[in-house]
Fold this protein.
Amino acid sequence: MIAVVTLHHYLIISGLLFALGMAGVIARRNALVILMALEMNLSAANLALVAFSKYNNLVEGQVFVFFVIAIAAAEVAVGLAILVALFRLKQTVNVDELNSMKR
Amino acid sequence: MNPVWILLFAPLAGAAVITLLTQRWRTLSALISCGAILTGFAVSLWIFWALGASVELAPAPWQWLVLGERVKIEFGATVDHLSVLMLLVVTGVGSAIHIYSIGYMKGDPGFSRYFACMSLFTFSMLGIVLSTNFIQIFIFWELVGVSSYLLIGYWFEKPSAAEAGKKAFLVNRIGDFGMMLGVLLLWSFTGTFDFRELPARITTVPVGALGWIGALIFCGAVGKSAQVPLHVWLPDAMEGPTPVSALIHAATMVAAGVYLLCRVFVLFAASPVALMLVAWVGGITALLAASIAIAQNDIKRILAYSTLSQLGYMVMAVGLGGPTAAMFHLTTHAFFKALLFLGAGSVIVALHHEQDIWKMGGLWRKLPITFWTFLIGALALAGIWPLAGFYSKDEILLLALRVNKPLFVLGTLTAFLTAYYVGRLLFVVFFGAPRDPRACDHAHEPPWVMTLPLGFLAVLSLAGGWFGTVPYFLDPKAEIEHSRLGYALLLVPLAGFAVSASVYAKTAPNDAPVRKALGPLWTWIEDKFYFDELYLWLVQHVQGAMAAMCEWFDRWILQRLGIGGLTSTVNLAGKTLRLVQTGNIQSYVFLFGLGVVVILYYVVVR
């Protein structure tokens, strides 16, 4: 039996990946891990874009993905920098303790 | 510029100039005010003279307020026999009183303010007389109320005067509210406010509605002309300076109600019920006020109740279907009542502001001019032949005899009482021994500015009624009957005089014999039939209870439940929403994600 891989398969994988990333963002306490989970969300989006691009014979999706990867790299750099600065300030990366937005 | 506008606006201009510019120059203020009203008098005389020639005297009306198709209110001037008669009365008697005021108010700190108010009043009164429609007359009606308030409370530093002004204004407001409703009701049926269109338009109005309209408009006259049950303000209004009482509360303003009734008589003529109401209110006022007048001790209050009673006569005459007779009596009454008030003013000034008649006495030697003119006024008021009051009162009584016998009895009784209290006033004030020798010794005749108007008004009171000139002027077809019965009625006031002479024509008169004869009734009369007490009770308990209810509703329902409920709801919502703000990024992300899911759900599934 030859398994035919359709757009739906990609999209389901992408959705699962996004949900996993979202769960990580919401549930994990370590800011570093949250950042990693965030990267997973971006990957899910990239996957969906590439899949659409392939199945619709359009090149724009792949162009988008390039942009997303480039900006994600920059974002990770900024994010990590913020994390380091935060750790220096608060001596912790546990987000439960980082609730200064309440005030 | 049309002379009628000059007549109307000269006093207003005078009031404005005095208030804004000449407060400090007292003599100039007085001259401006007197000049304004004398101009008015001259113009009135000119109109009177020109009325015979068939020229259009009334100025072109000015479209003042146009609200859509149905409501067009103009500001115009009526010039017909009725308004010209009233103009002559207002400006003629008014001029005399203005001039008299120069002497009476001499040395008063508010001299200029007084004359400004007098001019404002004159303007408002002339406005009423000249009005062409209900809205215009209502505006001037209220202006008269305001200027009356200002003048009654002229000595506002005296609490009783301030109270009296307030009372007059509020009591008048009650009547005016009825009048406003009547005018609106009339408009809803006929679609017009204009007096000239009334006769043609009211034919389509059902008689029942006309009765209501008449009764409501009559409310305005009840307030302004101080008829029972809204008469209580007039006696208190005597707190104002005496010339004010003469001008406003005897000659002109209180006559405005009667004038209004005559002006829209066509409305009443169409409704027998309204006429009946008017006649009885007038008759009852006449008798009630005359009976109260016999037991008063303040010279001005006696005259005030007398005014009420005479106004009752006029209103009764309108109600009996005789606006001509009413206007006749209005005119003569303006003459002799103004004269009496000014005479009383002379006495008051001579005795250094003493108003209690029991502290006067024997003044006829000291104040001969005042005495003789006062005597003429008093005899005219009592209706003695051949003075003015005789003719006009006869008109009314004979009319009553023809139309309504019970009212004739009431009117005759009033005539008797009138002569009686006039006699009492004369005997106590001018005859007998001086009861306050210290004050009476220094009494002397007032200056010529005060005696001249007295003489002028005395001449009018003597001649005002001769040959029925006034009724002929108003209605050339009028039949003036002076049957033998009319002269027989002369016995009534003579009897009144005789009774009062038997009681009071002594060296030291007092009320004791009458008090004994009347028994408990005297107490009732002396206490003015407890109208004030009744109203006080009503205000305290009925109106007070209503106010308490409103206060309760306001405090508990509106404030606590309405406004308080609203604020606490918002407050609670705010407190609840504050719990959402945890400061935890992850919960924000969670809610954000939830929001996206919800939106997606709605976009995709729905």
Observations:
- The interface with chain B takes residues 22, 25-27, 34, 95-96, 98-103 of chain A (CB under 8 Å).
